[in-house]
Amino acid sequence: MPPTALEEAQRGSRPPAKLRTEEFRLGRPEIVGPDAPEPPFPIALEGKVQRGFGRGGKDLGCPTANLPDESTTAMSSVTKTGIYYGYAQVIPPKDEPTQLRRVDTKVLPMVMSLGWNEFYKNKRLTAEIHIMHKFESDFYGYEMKAIVLGYIRPEFDYISREALIEDIEFDKRVALNCLQRPAYQEYSKDPFFVLDGNL
Ligand SMILES: Cc1cc2nc3c(=O)[nH]c(=O)nc-3n(C[C@H](O)[C@H](O)[C@H](O)COP(=O)(O)O)c2cc1C
Q: Which UniProt key words apply to this protein (predicted)?
């Protein structure tokens, strides 16, 4: 068993440096994992969205919503670092005006990076969720719920920003293909989420 993300963080160690990024990138499959989620999945996470460094949106064209450490312990204590997929939902505060539209509060497909952001040499383990949807306003401080359903790939240290962007785009396609499978789609209706009408 590889060490979990939390064990790595506690030891202050990082995953083996520079995995064979280029080799991996050449033979990437369009769909990964079994036909139905297998343990440790599904993993449910929730917490208030925090500000990251803001590079995701600006540098990479892929804005991410960060979850606080205490919200991700459930995941980092059973999984390794890497890129995952599943569903997420942003929940606006009750009885307060919000800029979010109804379409923004649906259960939506997501990709998640659990790691050190090798490319940016971060000092802390972070859990960042990119929801595959065009939001027109920020939602920092709002509650976010997510169900993680599978693992896509390890985190790499890229030779260029362009290569990282290319792979993130690939990750999004893989996630959408994976979520097409009926046993995964089921989770978009899981009662853990706040289902239509109850927002
Ligand atoms: C799907 C996805 C895949 C990612 N893959 C990697 C990766 O392989 N290596 C890496 O260093 N960072 C990876 N990242 C993390 C980005 O570097 C990170 O989202 C970016 O630093 C933005 O963070 P910020 O908004 O906190 O600045 C990935 C992020 C996402 C959403």
A: ATP-binding, Flavoprotein, FMN, Kinase, Nucleotide-binding, Transferase
